[in-house]
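Long-time lurker. I teach an intro course on protein structure, and each term I like to show students one example going from raw sequence to a predicted 3D structure in token notation. This year I'd like something fresh instead of my usual example. Would anyone be willing to generate the tokens for the chain below so I can use it in lecture? Attribution to the forum is fine with me.
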Amino acid sequence: EDTYLLGTAYVQQKPQDPAVRTAMVQHQMEMSADQRKQLISKWQGEVWEDEQPTNPQLLNAMRNFRQGGTDLLPVLLKTATAPDYDPYALAILCKLAPDQARPLVIADIKRDQSLYLTKPRTHFSKPDGLDALPDQPISELTATFRQKLTERATDPSLLLPLIDRYGTSDLLPDVLRFYKSNAGNWECTVEDACIRFWIRCDPPAGLAALEHTLHSRQHTRCYVYLLENVFADRWSDLAQPVVVKVLDDPDPDVVLSAIKTLQKHGNQDSVESVISALERIHTTPPPPIPDEEAPEIQKAQQAELAKLLLRSSRWTYHPGQKDRLNNIAASPK
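-- Reply from a regular --
Happy to contribute to a lecture. Here you go:
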């Protein structure tokens, strides 16, 4: 039975049914204000015995609930605090009511043992919930971050992304001391966060460190996706010439990362350089590798990237440039 055809009476009686949650997320079922109020009331009172304390399906339904949103605050607050301390609920609360979520985030980061990071997570290197407040420094956390960097009792893959997001610039010497103690050997999450923070606090020096990291070719291969990760949601115009230079890199995966970064952030001046770089890696035979299918996969990725460039609303192309991109986009058969 199509979940969209579930009656509103059934929805009100069985809000915990996975089919109901699926219907709400996928079909955005229409409800009157009174029906919505009844359903939220049931959400507050239900015991979710069919799942673990962390309920991504329930919270996805909340996130996608069509009308308004502030009436979900009691449900979210109940789920994000004792006894559940649900990181998914905290993440939604940070978006919906950051002023109410902020004290919860600050208090948890200051704890010796997080009440949120102990919950099962789908992305183990990402501190779900705690990193969902607006991306700006929180001075109340400076002393805590400095202490945690010194004590090294917190997993760096969880701590450094939080410092990158909430750390004040006077933490830069502490972060650099920490980073340089194992430079080239950190896992990618730590590497990315340190470089991002460095660029935020001291753009010229941070971009120089970015270039050095790209050229160092660590065994971790973090350099392959470094540009995409560092500039995922931040950009500095000072970075454009640095990223454009990477288009000449011999590693096609690094070039693809540079192209994606410029497509997302770069200005019109980089268009010809991007197309030429994509043509170069597309026509250059790949080095011999054990996986016989890898070259075909690379060609397909390059073709998809050409299609993405053609759909770009940020850049304009003259007819010759469009033809070159269309040739790459149509190449895999």
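Some talking points for your students: The two ends are 39 Å apart (CA to CA). The first helix runs from residue 8 to 13.
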